[in-house]
Specification:
There is one protein chain. By secondary structure, this protein is of the alpha+beta class. The protein folds into 5 domains: 54 residues, no CATH class; 140 residues, no CATH class; 115 residues, Nucleotidyltransferase, domain 5, CATH 3.30.420.10; 172 residues, UvrC, RNAse H endonuclease domain (Nucleotidyltransferase, domain 5), CATH 3.30.420; 53 residues, 5' to 3' exonuclease, C-terminal subdomain (DNA polymerase, domain 1), CATH 1.10.150.20. Strands 10, 11, 12, 13, 14, 15, 16 and 17 form an 8-stranded mixed β-sheet that branches. Strands 1-7-6-5-8-9 form a 6-stranded mixed β-sheet. Strands 3-2-4 form a 3-stranded antiparallel β-sheet, with helices on one face. The N and C termini lie far apart (84 Å).
Length: 603
């Protein structure tokens, strides 16, 4: 269903399209004001015919995710869950943190709900088994470089230096795999024996290390108390809703263990029954998650259960069941999930209202203050330098009162040398807006969706870190490029704190206690932070410089080869041409240049 602007308002599917469409135009009492509003805005219908209900289900879900229609119930959270990845295809495997589950011959454990817990577990396993964490290609690079600090801290067995055979390393990896699969008994026994042996040898420091590792393993083992004798993978879903919000609680059971839970907010739920909200959640959530369990336990039947089972089976590659438990342990877990959903809904109600006040509410305050409408995207700019050294600019983006960090951009000033903030700002704004115009033209020529351009989307309001001067620079750039965008200055007082806004040639006072003022301050601080961070990184790179970099023909690989062979700059300085030629990567003519560079003052 599309409105007069051809915007998609609603996506649905039906076996009988005539009956489904006609139902929206009947005078049905109790249908609800939301559907009435939607019907009043329909300008035209667009329909796609598919070969089966399953195809219609998949297409409906894809279109909803792609277009986010206003009147479809939407899953608010868009999360990727962490996995533990074991690179078993490598000769010396590593244990890594991953957000994606790929077909790359690695072994994955998860998904887990806590990224921090996953990182702690990986760190613990690497400590216990002395596994490598580097990206070196082994066995090709064995002996190429010295072992890293982890080896000297007894945290790595240094396969990179040949200090452990592939067979012994494989035994350690197998122990780590057993640990990840929940078999803690062998490692607890092994650590206990090593602790006692170290204690008998009066090596109390090592005994204390084993004691701490043993305590960490026992803590992880204790977290797996809730188990299921069937040892199956399943998700247990429950829902709580009121007149405006809904929360779906999911308990993740893997290999019979409850490994965690997560809750998800659903939007656009007004007047929708719970089974319909649950249906939309199942379709949207399991279309995006890489892991699908064998069973989905639902609190009540939902529409198209058979079709959804077929779809999930197709995605998983093996049979998936949707069930509604009636008694036993599964029913108890369902009740527990439902209690948690109710708790989250009631507990977070006020927090969500506060969050909305800090974001959307604050944007509306700014709209009212400046007399604007439809304000969503705001871009703020700042300049950073030290006496004109390494001039840089920053662009931060806020949409609906929240930072959109994927759209942040940083600029290294090219045309200005010296402390001229106005000239620097003019370059930054010109480059940003010109990029946008060029991308728009290219996308139009190639007929590509405008969302694929990083600069294509222009802001509804530009915020300048300063008053009249900075605003006028921006207005000048906009006029030269023929672009109309409102520009507002964020004026600071003598203590470098925001005191008001400069808009349409006048300074506007703003209540310091208002959410709008707090949002402006956050945006200004963020633009400043982002610019300083980039400037600091450039200063650090400029300071970390070797004298070898000044020798013509010496790049990173030859510099590294020289340092590996001679160990210090002083040894290179003392070497003659014949000694320098002994480095395989250094040809004779280059050896002569190096010698002449260090001895030019003597010649």
């Amino acid at each position: 269903m599309r409105d007069e602007n051809d915007t998609i308002m609603y996506v649905g599917k039906a076996i009988n399209l005539y009956n489904r469409v006609r139902s929206y135009f009947r005078k049905i009492v109790g249908r609800g004001p939301q559907i009435d509003r939607m019907v009043s805005q329909i300008a035209r219908f667009e329909y796609i015919v598919t070969d089966s209900e399953l195809e219609a289900l998949v297409l409906e879900n894809n279109l909803i995710k792609e277009n986010s229609p206003r009147y479809n119930t939407m899953l608010k959270d868009d999360k990727t869950y962490p996995y533990i990845k074991v690179t078993v295809s490598e000769e010396f495997p590593r244990i890594l943190f991953s957000r994606l589950m790929k077909k790359d011959k690695s072994k994955y454990f998860g998904p887990f709900t806590s990224a921090a817990a996953v990182k702690d577990t990986i760190e613990l396993i690497n400590k216990i088994y002395g596994l490598r964490t580097c990206n070196r290609v082994l066995p090709r690079d064995i002996g190429v470089d010295r072992p890293c600090l982890n080896y000297h801290m007894n945290r790595c067995s240094a396969p990179c230096d040949g200090k452990i055979s592939s067979e012994e390393y494989a035994e350690r990896i197998q122990g780590a795999l057993d640990f990840l699969e929940g078999n803690y008994t062998p490692i607890i026994k092994d650590l206990s024996e090593k602790m006692e042996a170290a204690s008998e040898e009066l090596n109390f420091e090592r005994a204390a290390t084993y004691r701490d590792l043993l305590s960490s393993v026992r803590q992880i083992a204790q977290k797996q108390k809730m188990t299921d004798a069937a040892m199956e993978d399943k998700d247990i879903l429950a829902i709580a809703s009121d007149e405006s919000d809904a929360v779906v609680q999911v308990f993740f059971v893997r290999d019979g263990r409850l490994i965690g839970r997560e809750h998800f907010y659903m939007t656009h739920v007004s007047e929708n029954p719970q089974n319909e909200i649950l249906l939309n959640f199942v379709k949207q959530f399991y279309a995006g998650t890489p892991f699908i369990p064998r069973e989905l336990m639902l609190p009540e039947p939902i529409e198209d259960m058979d079709i959804i089972e077929k779809w999930l089976t197709q995605r998983k590659g093996s049979r998936v069941y949707l069930k509604v438990p009636e008694r036993g342990q599964k029913e108890k877990l369902m009740e527990l999930a439902a209690q948690n959903a109710e708790l989250v809904l009631s507990k977070d109600k006020e927090r969500l209202k506060r969050e909305e006040g800090r974001t959307i509410g604050a944007v509306k305050e700014i709209e009212k203050l400046l007399g604007l409408k439809g304000l969503s995207r705001m871009e703020a700019f700042d300049i950073s330098n030290i006496s004109g050294f390494a001039n840089v600019g920053s662009m931060v983006v806020y949409e609906k009162g929240k930072p959109k960090r994927s759209d942040y951009r940083k600029f290294r000033i090219k045309s200005v040398s010296g402390p001229d903030d106005y000239a620097c700002m003019k370059e930054v704004l010109t480059r940003r807006l010109m990029h946008g115009l060029e991308e728009r033209h290219e996308l139009e020529v190639r007929e590509i969706d405008a969302r694929y351009g990083s600069f294509t989307k222009f802001p509804d309001l530009i915020l300048m870190d300063g008053g009249r001067g900075q605003v006028n620079i921006c207005l000048q750039v906009l006029e030269e490029l023929g672009i109309k965008i409102p520009v507002c200055g964020m004026v600071k007082d003598d203590n470098h704190r925001t005191r008001g806004l400069y808009f349409n040639n006048e300074e506007i006072a703003i209540d310091r206690r208002s959410e709008g003022f707090k949002l402006i301050t956050r945006i200004q601080d963020e633009a400043h932070r982002f610019a300083i961070e980039y400037h600091r990184s450039l200063r650090s790179k400029a300071q970390v410089k070797s004298s070898l970099d000044e020798i013509p023909g010496i790049g990173p690989s030859r510099r590294k080869a020289l340092m590996r062979h001679f160990k210090s700059i002083e040894e290179i300085r003392m070497a003659d041409v014949e000694t320098l030629k002994q480095v395989p990567e250094i040809p004779e003519n280059q050896a002569v240049k190096i010698y002449e560079f260090f001895h030019s003052s003597e010649l």
